[in-house]
Automatic annotation (TrEMBL):
SMART domains: HTH_XRE (SM00530), TPR (SM00028)
Pfam families (alphabetical): HTH_31 (PF13560), TPR_12 (PF13424)
InterPro entries named among the record's database cross-references: Cro/C1-type_HTH (IPR001387), Lambda_DNA-bd_dom_sf (IPR010982), P-loop_NTPase (IPR027417), TPR-like_helical_dom_sf (IPR011990), TPR_rpt (IPR019734), WH-like_DNA-bd_sf (IPR036388)
Superkingdom in the source lineage: Bacteria
Coiled-coil features, chain-numbered ranges: none
Protein name: Tetratricopeptide (TPR) repeat
Species the sequence originates in: Micromonospora viridifaciens
Residue ranges of every copy of the HTH cro/C1-type domain listed in the record: 4-58
Lineage, opening ranks: Bacteria, Bacillati, Actinomycetota, Actinomycetes, Micromonosporales
SUPFAM superfamilies, sorted: lambda repressor-like DNA-binding domains (SSF47413), P-loop containing nucleoside triphosphate hydrolases (SSF52540), TPR-like (SSF48452)
Matches recorded under PROSITE patterns: HTH_CROC1
Molecular function terms from GO: ADP binding; DNA binding
Length: 742
């Protein structure tokens, strides 16, 4: 990748600026430049064009590199539901969708409920899988799902980016949309966006340039969605409807008049036809004429098909169906159905099998179940009239999810746990990933029902998962409601712990004043010594970032006293390190060095990182050799323990130290690497810190234009987040940089 590296150097741009100009993500560009990944030819062309170079001489070199394979290809991602074995008809519509995807890269399939929009989209997506080697993604936007609000574009983008392994998406919707387009531009992915409520929900989710494509389904015709041609579905034509009914019924019906009556009663809708066919299949003594007569007895075609499918079930199965109508979330497993119905596993398994056979429940993957929105609404309506125990059943489900979350959380390693974690942490993390949407839906149901125990405890059970997925959209909302629930329950210690977590989440999002408010409320709740020590440390962080260094120092020293009282060496080490950090910025170098050395001596392993970085920066102007040795040791510990936030922090302050030592080019390399590591983490607080320091390095090394770009970004963020201290610092630095340019 030497040629690409040379192109970058000739451009004079930072990695981020070059990536933006070429329409790539900086993390991808970093992998291309370091040889971890051979770029697609389109990305190579985009890089050359971004710097005004002819890409053609690189073609042969690129072909050799691609043949050698600098890195193994990632496995194809496939989130698509299973294709229907009895999919019938739609040849013309399928051909049109395929052609539009080929020519425009986007299609919106619209039609009434139950007409088969999702089935067509999934059928086409499976058929075109070889055309999109990088995967097929599926996301239900819940535009018409009973009991659920449509998915906001901000949240939808977070989930889509997560499917591409971007675990910490940017905070802003526009930034997420830009990153989503950038990630798709270097892939060939087919995205199915199912059940959209309107064009505004879909617009930010559309791919940009590149060879990825999108299939949208909606009950509404999305006429204002520019560049996305519509394909409208009508009910099946009579011949196709008859064929589908026959396949679902498992017979070749001969009574044409009776079959026509069934098709008419079902309105030509595939969903209703499958149910009617399943009903006949389960009643071998019936003729099609008997089925038609039964359908005629009910005026509504939906009630006819659904009700008839329901009547074929026994009492337990019908009750299971009714209760599934009130179940929160997108999908479920047999254990959840067992909690809902209060039935043993064997009886639940039989009930679910019968419901699947009757087409009342879908099984998109083994052991995972879901309901069509129309059927879910039908079940909920029946439950409202006929199921007095529905709320009690829902409360059992909430307790089930809470118990499962607590059990899986105990498997995850965390700093506050002294004993080794039981079980498999990877499986526990996978469970949270799988059930996350359902956990949030259950939390909202608990709020609605006033089940304060679940509201207060569920976010704490998700604490470690949230820590590893910082930037998750729901975290702050959940913690706010949980703290209020703990207060209603009179649980002061739990409320204090939740407020502390809330402050941390707000601080990570850069909302310092709101973080401080949460911390101070927690501190007023009479926390125990362990929590009080952690709070003092966190309040110190916020005071430091607000520019009040003396108040920050007072908090760090209070934290040290409390950690000493409870016998926590690691806590004392952190408090000493940050005391040293603010002491250094107050201009007392020798005192800062002493505090940092004391911090390192008290800790071992990754707990030494903060003290080592503080020591390294403090020594930069007096002992360059020890400074670099210390900072590289901190970086080694960060890499050895896979701590990406710390890796970014170490690289940034290696850049600061090298700037102080006069090694300009090496300083820039470390700053750039810090931003590459930071990009997927959605850590606004660290971003502001890095912007200040990198801008100072650029200004000190004569790169004034680059400094101005960085400082403008800092000012924009500071204003958005209400951070006057950062804005003031950036404005002063900008004035100096601008005067140097002039």
């Amino acid at each position: 990748m030497a040629q690409l590296t040379q192109i970058k150097e000739l451009s004079g741009l930072s990695l981020r600026a070059l990536a933006r100009q070429a329409g790539l993500s900086s993390s991808s560009l970093s992998r291309y430049l370091t040889g971890q990944l051979v770029p697609p030819w389109e990305a190579t062309v985009a890089l050359c064009r971004a710097v005004g170079r002819d890409p053609r001489p690189l073609r042969a070199v690129w072909a050799e590199a691609a043949k050698a394979g600098a890195a193994p290809p990632t496995p194809r991602r496939n989130d698509l539901p299973a294709d229907l074995f009895d999919f019938t008809g739609r040849e013309a519509e399928s051909a049109l969708v395929v052609e539009l995807l080929r020519t425009t890269g986007a299609v919106a399939i619209d039609g009434m409920a139950g007409v088969g929009k999702t089935s067509l989209a999934v059928r086409v997506a499976h058929r075109l899988a070889p055309t999109y080697p990088d995967g097929g993604l599926y996301l239900d936007l819940h535009g018409f799902t009973p009991g659920q609000e449509p998915l906001e574009p901000h949240t939808a983008l977070g989930r889509l980016l997560g499917a591409l392994d971007v675990t910490h998406p940017p905070a802003g919707t526009a930034e997420r949309a830009a990153l989503w387009r950038s990630e798709l531009s270097r892939r060939r992915v087919l995205v199915v966006l199912d059940n959209a409520v309107d064009a505004d929900q879909v617009r930010p989710l559309l791919p940009g340039a590149g060879k990825s494509a999108v299939l949208v389904t909606s009950r509404h015709r999305l006429v204002s969605l520019d560049g996305v041609p519509p394909v409208s579905l009508e009910p099946l034509a009579d011949a196709d409807a008859v064929h589908l009914f026959g396949r679902a019924a498992g017979l070749a019906p001969t009574d044409e008049e009776a079959v026509s009556e069934v098709v008419r009663q079902c309105g030509g809708l595939p969903l209703a036809l499958r149910m009617a066919g399943a009903r006949l299949r389960h009643r071998p003594g019936w003729t099609v004429a008997v089925l038609a007569e039964r359908l005629r007895a009910t005026p509504s075609r939906f009630d006819s098909a659904f009700g008839m499918s329901l009547r074929q079930l026994d009492t337990v199965q019908r009750r299971t169906f009714r209760l599934l109508g009130v179940l929160p979330g997108a999908d479920f497993d047999a254990a959840v159905a067992g909690a809902l119905t209060d039935l043993p596993p064997d009886r639940v398994g039989v009930a679910l099998e019968e419901l699947v056979d009757a087409h009342l429940v879908q099984e998109p993957s083994p052991g995972r179940y879901r309901m069509h929105d129309l059927i879910r609404q039908y079940a909920a309506d029946i439950a409202a009239d006929e199921e007095p125990q529905a709320e009690a059943a829902l409360r059992r489900v909430l307790r089930h999810y809470l118990a499962q979350a607590v059990a899986h959380d105990q498997t995850l390693p965390a700093p506050h746990r002294k004993e080794p974690s039981p079980g498999d942490p990877a499986k526990a993390m996978a469970w949270f990933d799988l059930e996350y949407v359902n956990l949030v839906a259950c939390f909202d149901a608990a709020v609605r029902l006033g089940v304060d125990e679940v509201v207060a405890e569920l976010p704490q059970a998700m604490r470690v998962w949230f820590f590893r997925h910082r930037g998750t959209d729901d975290q702050i909302r959940l913690l706010e409601a949980a703290a209020a629930a703990a207060a209603r329950l009179g649980r002061d210690q739990q409320r204090a712990a939740l407020l502390a977590d809330l402050g941390y989440a707000r601080a990570a999002a850069g909302r310092l004043a709101e973080a401080l408010s949460a911390y101070e409320l927690a501190d007023q709740s009479g926390p125990d010594d362990h929590l009080a020590a952690g709070l003092a440390l966190r309040i110190g962080f916020v005071r430091r970032d607000l520019g009040d260094l003396k108040a920050a120092q007072a908090q760090f020293r209070r934290a040290r006293e409390l950690f000493e009282k409870i016998g926590s060496h690691a806590g004392q080490s952190q408090a000493l390190a940050f005391d040293g950090w603010v002491t250094l910025h107050l201009g007392r170098h020798s005192e800062a060095v002493e505090l940092a050395r004391a911090s390192v001596a008290l800790a071992d392993g990754p707990a030494q990182i903060t003290g080592l970085v503080t020591l390294g920066v403090a020594l930069a102007s007096h002992d360059p050799a020890e400074s670099l040795r210390t900072l590289h040791e901190a970086l080694r510990l960060s890499e050895q323990n896979n701590l990406q936030h710390n890796q970014a922090w170490c690289h940034n302050y290696l850049g600061v130290a090298l700037r102080i030592m006069g090694s300009a080019e090496k300083a820039h390399e470390h700053h750039r690497r810090a931003f590459e590591l930071l990009e997927p983490l959605a850590e606004v607080q660290l971003e502001i810190d890095f912007l200040h320091t990198y801008a100072e390095t650029c200004r000190a090394t004569g790169r004034y234009d680059e400094a101005l770009v960085l400082l403008d970004r800092t000012i924009k963020l500071a204003r958005e987040l209400g951070r006057p201290h950062d804005e003031e610092l950036a404005l002063a630095a900008r004035e100096l940089a601008a005067s140097s340019v002039a």
